[in-house]
Design goal:
The chain is globular. Helix 1 crosses helix 2 and helix 1 runs antiparallel to helix 3. The chain has about 110 residues and is α+β, with helices and mostly antiparallel strands. It starts with 5 loop residues before the first strand and ends in a 12-residue tail after the last strand. A 4-stranded antiparallel β-sheet has the order 2-3-1-4. The protein contains 3 helices and 4 strands, in the order βαββααβ.
Length: about 110
């Protein structure tokens, strides 16, 4: 069974010892905008092993057009600049990857 769509795989590197502050700002200021414009995320994660101080969030999209439409809605939302300003001293780097699923028949269970 082929899976369609894209996953926006975001990695933010947070300033040393600032993760609790970042999470509070993100939850309070970004999440209302993101839920309204992007919908519900696939999940949120912090790094445990490997590069430290990283916050990862994943969002699903039906297509590149869907990604562009919803991203524009986020970026032009009147409350989004408030989050950007409040978090600018907390985020030291950002990576955005668009990834998609591939068929892997041996992985699929045969019921």
């Amino acid at each position: 069974m082929s899976q369609k769509g894209l996953i926006d795989h975001r990695i933010y590197t947070i300033a040393l010892r600032k993760m609790p502050e970042f999470l509070e700002v993100f939850n309070r200021l970004a999440m209302p905008v993101l839920l309204e414009t992007l919908g519900h995320p696939l999940g949120f994660y912090t790094s445990l092993v490997g590069p430290q101080n990283q916050f990862v969030h994943l969002w699903a999209y039906d297509s590149l057009d869907d990604y562009e439409r919803r991203s524009l809605a986020r970026d032009t939302h009147p409350d989004f600049p408030v989050y950007l300003k409040a978090s600018q001293h907390l985020i030291t780097a950002q990576e955005t990857r668009l990834i998609r699923a591939v068929d892997m028949p041996a992985w699929m269970s045969k019921a």
